[in-house]
């Protein structure tokens, strides 16, 4: 049987976002989230930040035109980081959000996976997520709900 590309991939190495204001986005990703600036190309209005052990986020400044695109990507994170994510985000001045963009005070659980998850937005409205897949059986009927509800369900 021929091996599929999907069977050889171990993760995402890099992702890229278009941003209206590169300086504003660098202040968010570097100063608020803490990702290190890896390389900047001022003549091209782009910057690359280190993410995790060997990942990269490219920020591509496109100017202040009236049209924009909102994208989504997720950072893999350990369970402990998710458990403290609301406090961590709030201390950086970032609102923690649920799957539908509603304010939350604790991570949500995506029951069908299951995974702990917290969402937040960058200055351009891109939806960012921190996620940790739980080592528990999935429960699609749970849907998406607060961690505390997941734990109560599991305790039954």
Descriptive key words:
156 residues; alpha+beta; 2,3-Dihydroxybiphenyl 1,2-Dioxygenase, domain 1; five-stranded mixed β-sheet; 4 helices
Structural account:
By secondary structure, the chain is α+β, with helices and mostly antiparallel strands. It folds into two domains: about 1-65, 2,3-Dihydroxybiphenyl 1,2-Dioxygenase, domain 1 (Roll), CATH 3.10.180.10; about 70-155, Roll (2,3-Dihydroxybiphenyl 1,2-Dioxygenase, domain 1), CATH 3.10.180. It is built from four helices and nine strands; from the N terminus they run E-H-E-E-E-E-H-H-E-E-E-E-H. It has helices spanning about 20-30, 80-85, 85-90, 145-155; strands at about 15-20, 35-40, 45-50, 55-60, 70-75, 110, 115-120, 125-135, 145. The strands form two sheets. Strands 5-8-7-6-9 form a five-stranded mixed sheet.
Question: Can you summarize this structure?
Answer:
The chain is α+β, with helices and mostly antiparallel strands. The protein has helices spanning 22-32, 79-83, 85-91, 147-155; strands spanning 14-19, 37-41, 46-51, 55-61, 72-76, 108-110, 115-121, 127-133, 144-146.
